[in-house]
Amino acid sequence: MSDSTAQTVRQLKIKTGVVKRLFKEEKTYRVEAEDQRKVLAKLKNEDADGADIRNAERVLKDSEQMIPRTRKSLEDAVLALQDMVDALAAEPSLSETPEYTAAKLQLEEVDAAWKVNGA
Predict the structure, then answer these.
(1) Which residue spans traverse the membrane (predicted)?
(2) Of 2, 7, 69, 100, which sits with the fewest C-beta atoms within 10 Å of its C-beta?
(3) CATH number at residue 20
(4) Contacts by 73-76 with C-beta closer than 8 Å and gap 24+?
(5) What would the DSSP string read from start to end of 16-53?
(6) Tens-digit pLDDT profile for the chain (119 aa)?
(7) What is the pTM of this model?
(8) Cα gap 29→63, rounded to integer Å
């Protein structure tokens, strides 16, 4: 494998890793926000201390604010990876590598999740 091919494969692997990490991170924030909503509802139903409720509201707000930030980063990373995958599709020496296959699978996973969630 030539140096330029190795460098391209390395970049593909890095971009795939970024998409994978951000996708997981966004999912984690969504789950965290949903869990925190339940905690907040429970505290309110039990007439918990005002400080506990305010703390739970703050944690929920923090989680909810991270979702769009992470989503924007994920969308940017997906576009960058998709551009690279599209550019490499015509090069058999690269489009037949495991890293290329992994990149395509990661893009498909994100796309499928976005279709299910209506995003």
Answers:
(1) none
(2) 2
(3) 1.20.58.90
(4) 73/22, 74/19, 74/22, 74/23, 74/25, 74/26, 74/110
(5) HHHHHHHHHHHHHHHHHHHHHHHHHHHHHHTT--HHHH
(6) 678 888 999 999 999 999 999 999 999 999 999 999 999 999 989 888 889 889 999 999 999 999 999 999 999 999 999 999 999 998 888 888 999 999 999 999 999 998 887 65
(7) 0.86
(8) 6
